[in-house]
Amino acid sequence: MKDRAKASLIKSNMSIKRVMEIIENSKRIAPETPGGIALAVDKKNKLIGLVTDGDIRRALLAGADVNSEINDIINRQPIVFDNDLTYSEMLNQTIEGINRGHTKTKRLEVLVTVDKKGRPYDIFSFFELWCNSEVRTRIVSIVGLGYVGLTLGFVLADCGFKIIGVDENKQIVENLRKKKIHIHEEGIENYLDRYLNKRFYVKHNFDSNESDVYIICVGTPIDKYGKVDDRPLKKALSYISGLLKKNDLIILRSTVAIGTCRNLVVKTIEKETKLKAGEDFFVAFAPERTIEGDALNELRSLPQVIGGYDKKSADLTVKLFNNLTSSVVLVDSLEGAEIVKLLNNTYRDLTFSFANEVALICDKFGLNSYDIIQAANYGYERSLIPKPSPGVGGYCLTKDPYILSESARSHGYRPKLPIISRAVNDGMIDYVADIVERFAKSNGKKKNMKIFVAGLAFKGEPETDDMRYSTSVEIIKKLKKRYKNIFVHDPVVSERNIRRAGFKYSSVRDGFRSADCVLILNNHNSYLDFNIYQLANTMKKPGLLFDAWHIFGKIVSKPIDRVYYRGV
């Protein structure tokens, strides 16, 4: 029973005067108590009715004595709701009751919920019910303005929400205020121009508790053992705990180990605030599932997976994300939603590792793996083998299989496939570096030979400038241990950021010119505009043109003079 219900309890044999005193004192005992109401209960604390100050006033005007029992004034047919209903369900039932004439004045001031034994649980005003069920009235804070948080914030702003974006990196906040974007995402500048300081506001810390929804989008890196570093998450929870109000909603969007929401988020907030999850505040997990480069579109088109701490938490979160997309997948628990994200990325990593192992096998037989996979897939829907690649990079696919494995190990099961697939995909980095090494040795190339790398971001399509966990970066690092004359270009990563990463920048034309080796390491569509014969003919002979993604496999139909063309 909530304090405001407890403060309003009366017995039917109490005097009118005593009931008036209880009503008067209830606001002092529990300030959130709706004014002017008392809940009448029997000996077992089961609700038998309610009394308002209006009922008492009318009785006194009719001649009742203040020392007489309240029994005859009690309204024994109040509108009562089961406590396990969501706010939306209560609101719908209330409106249905009004429309059916169950209330004479078509005006409801106070609503009561009861537990399964019919005992009062809570009382609240109709306005409070409406506010709690209408998620569009809520102000949303996005905690963490990286790829996940920034794109989600802009799309929610586009849906009509007021958004407060918070990031502890002052430089990111200052740049956004100057309309400088720190990520590459198609169309994001339009959102910035349209909503910055109108519906989307940025800060580097929390300075007020005006928000009603907190969506946590902080990074969750892993250590060398596959264990999540939860310090950024704990810091975010510390911020939120200092501001949280009753009925606020916390949504975790960061990828985490299974059980994190229940065992870390809920327990931390409850400990720090003394509030209770599912009663005083609400918690859900709604994993980010978008692809970098097309996130603004996918936020509206992909199904949103949601798992709530309880029914009310899930309902509020569903109502929020229904503003983004018409497709929501509701799972039974926080843990169910947490594992969905890990499964999506682990499965993708696993399928890519199969394609890469196929390529390694084909290589031993002198077969073209792209042609073999294409033949295996053609017209055969049960076989959808992806293209092989120079490894699998990016912030998610390189760590989520480890998070899934570590989660399972903590509960007594040691998964095999996620770890094996990671080993296969990581092994492609050595595979590419070895191809360069073998070419150099067999053709008498020295340590000062020129190597040109096209493609530094972890992927090319959809395009991104994200170099985190890029296999291109790892391949270059391996080659730099032996070869110093390495130049790099990327269609999206800026020259400034390439140099900041410690690499030598080159244009495409200058990169090819006099290069002993050219490595095309990501699948950017703009590479199709290359006049590959013309560029390759400017290379030093003999030369290696390594096309990791087989971009020019159909174009290079005839040999290039003394340039060895090959892929994975």
Number of distinct helices: 20
What's the β-strand tally? 20
Oligomer: single chain
**Poorly predicted runs:** none
Largest beta-sheet characterization: 8 strands, mixed
Question: Which percent range fits the helix content?
Answer: 25-40%
Structural class: alpha/beta
Find the CATH topology of the largest domain. Answer: Rossmann fold
Global morphology: elongated
Q: Could you say what the CATH architecture of the largest domain is? A: 3-Layer(aba) Sandwich
Using the coordinates above, name the CATH class of the largest domain: Alpha Beta
Roughly how many Å apart are the termini?
65 Å
Structural summary, described in words:
By secondary structure, this protein is α/β, with parallel strands linked by helices. It folds into 3 domains: 3-132, CBS-domain (Roll); 135-332, Rossmann fold (3-Layer(aba) Sandwich); 346-568, Rossmann fold. It is 39% helix and 15% strand. It has 20 helices and 20 strands. The strands form 4 sheets. An 8-stranded mixed beta sheet has the order 9-8-7-10-11-12-13-14, with helices on both faces. Strands 17-16-15-18-19-20 form a 6-stranded parallel beta sheet. Strands 1-2-3 form a 3-stranded mixed beta sheet. Helix 9 (231-241) links the parallel strand 10 and strand 11 (248-252). Helix 6 (147-158) packs across helix 8 (188-195), helix 9 packs parallel to helix 10 (260-273) and helix 13 runs parallel beside helix 16. The protein is elongated. The termini are far apart. The mean pLDDT is 91.
